Amino acid sequence: MAFAIGVAVVWVSVITLLIAHQPDPGVDSPGQLRENLTAALNRHDAEALSELIDYPAAAADDFAKSYVDTLAGHGAHDVTVKFAPDDLSPTSATVSGKLADGRAFDYAVAIAVKDKLWMVSLTPPLP
Fold it and tell me: pLDDT tens-digit profile of 10-31?
């Protein structure tokens, strides 16, 4: 019995440490943010997207998966990201691309900087 309790305590400790040491979301520069965001959206890569979004850590993976699943469901491709008001200190971005039926889409997202890490604040609606 004591062995089982010891194993349980060690297991909870390991999980707690892993959660506590997850890296903060974001990247070091606006250019890196645009490059990584464009790649994640074009590849429909939820894991890569979750590392770029300003979203509560406990829900970031699920949110990113839902987000890219919606993009993939619409057949989004040829996605580009354009910053405003400029590329060096953006406060927003326009995400543009094409849908499976050939129609164009675009929507705005906010850019956030926390602890010198650049990330996007994604909210619906999607195309």
Answer: 555 555 544 444 567 889 999 9
Question: How far, in Å, are 67, 86, 117 from residue 61 at the CA level?
Answer: 10, 29, 18
Nearest-angstrom CA–CA distance, 95 and 104: 11
- Determine the Cα angle at 41 with ends 75 and 29, to 5°: 165
Spatial distance between the Cα atoms of 113 and 72, rounded to a whole number of angstroms: 28
Is residue 126 within 8 A of residue 67, CB to CB? The reply is yes
On whether the pTM is more than 0.70, the answer is: yes
The DSSP code for 116 is: T
- Enumerate residues 6+ apart whose C-beta is below 8 A from 5: none
CB burial of 68-91 (b: ≥16 within 10 Å; e: otherwise) equals beebeebebeebebebeeeeeebe
